[in-house]
Amino acid sequence: MFNQNDITKSLSNLIEIYSKRSYNIKLCMLSTSNICMTIMKRIQTAYEYEIDNNNLKYYGKDLFNQRACKLFEKLISSTTNKYTINQFWELWLLEDMTFAVVENINTVKRNLYSSDYRVIKTIVKNTDDIPFNPTEIIEELNEMCYDIFEDRTIIYAM
Q1: Using CB atoms within 10 A of its CB, is residue 114 exposed (0-12), middle (13-18) or buried (19+)?
Q2: Buried b (16+ CB within 10 A) or exposed e, 7-24
């Protein structure tokens, strides 16, 4: 179950894994309450594949057998011809508060369809399991909070 205490604890564990790699980052660099609210708003079911052809959406099996939130994605490679094919690595926070690294192959044919095929690369247990730069992840976590800030914006009408 996603709740603020568990999310904060799992983020602390992620930071601790990075500190073993001699990165000098701390959880206090993040606004954990805002990140937790954002994560809880972005919880979804991740599927092995998703196909969207503008009229219908097709889904494969549940990728994790639990709900999750995608925290970060990094473009690894991209090719463009008649189709655009992108390879992403993604970092997901699972409902059991573990982290998973996923490879996503995204194919897009303009205005016709898009597809995503995901494969779990690893469940994060130690420093070797994380292929991402921690500063990029922290920047992304902070940017995720912009949704929360936009909800709090006061709009004045005259």
Answers
A1: middle
A2: bbebbeebbebbeeeeee
Q: Hey, what are 92's tokens?
A: 């997901």
Q: pTM for the complete prediction?
A: 0.82
- Tokens 């995608």 correspond to what residue? 70
Supply 18's token pair: 């990075």
pLDDT, tens digit, 9 for 90 and up, residues 73-105: 999 988 888 889 999 999 999 999 999 999 999
Alpha-carbon distance 53 to 39, whole Å? 28
Length of the chain: 158
Distances, alpha carbon 132 to alpha carbons 61, 93, 149, in Å: 27, 14, 26
Q: What pLDDT score does 30 carry?
A: 60
Give the start-to-end residue ranges of the domains of the chain: 4-151
Mean pLDDT, range 12-30, rounded to an integer: 63
| Whole-angstrom distance, CA of residue 40 vs CA of residue 61 | 22
